[in-house]
Fold this sequence. Notes:
The protein is α/β, with parallel strands linked by helices and 289 residues long. The chain has ten helices and eight strands. β1 and β2 form a beta hairpin.
Amino acid sequence: MKTHTLETAGADLVHDVHGPLPATDGRPPLFMIGQPMDATGFAALAARSSERTVVTYDPRGIGRSVRRDGRVDHTPGTQADDVHALIQEIGAGPVEMFASSGGAVTALAVVARYPDDVTVLVAHEPPLITLTPDGPAAVRARAAVRDAYEKRGWGAGMAAFVAMTSWEGEFTEAYFAQPEADPAAFGMPVEDDGSRDDPLLSDRSWAISSYRPDVAAITGAPTRVVIAVGEESRAVQTGRTSAATAELLGQPVTVFPSHHGGFLDGEFGYPGKPDDFARRLREVLDGAA
């Protein structure tokens, strides 16, 4: 693996290249992108894709990528411009792409804005909460996570986030009638460290979860777009947003093993099934969706 930094007007984009460039297997590089997860989250999947040249990166303002644009918000358009700049910098486009969570939203924006950059996109569980039938309630639930974080700190915010993302079905009044999630019950700190800059728990990434894909641009692009969902996620929010995104694009959702982090080993505390996930990704990229 070699680490590089692309200096742009607004940020220093740190990216890792696993394997040779140009690729020696006759295929374009495989980009793996997340949001707010940085490149470390793809270590297990990249290791299981060693037959490919894989590129991972830290989005601006996250991990090693320092931003200089004076902003703290995360928006799909800006992220898409960064990914486009990286593809140009590497000089090996168009690429294949696996994108997860907020990275899947970024990837949909890449396809809409730069249709010649990506040959095939596997967009795994894009959290486009306004696309679901209970969109207004989902927005209310998202605001409650931010409020818990603002009032009581990271542990309370993360506990509220876990409660929201593990809720099955639509956000009904029964969801909002629950007592506030207890961070101690989830093994999270009760004390408040005073920070309020978490991109997941603050409102800094709301532009990502509120994004509405440009359907005409995406369906008109030469890119083969696959919307993927974990088999364990079907009833929870990101599973429902995946189904809604697939329906918006006029396609069925494609099922992958495990959950929202199904490609992870146990490094972040909730292991997925990375071997099965990598095998399924290989099949889908090869056209066996």
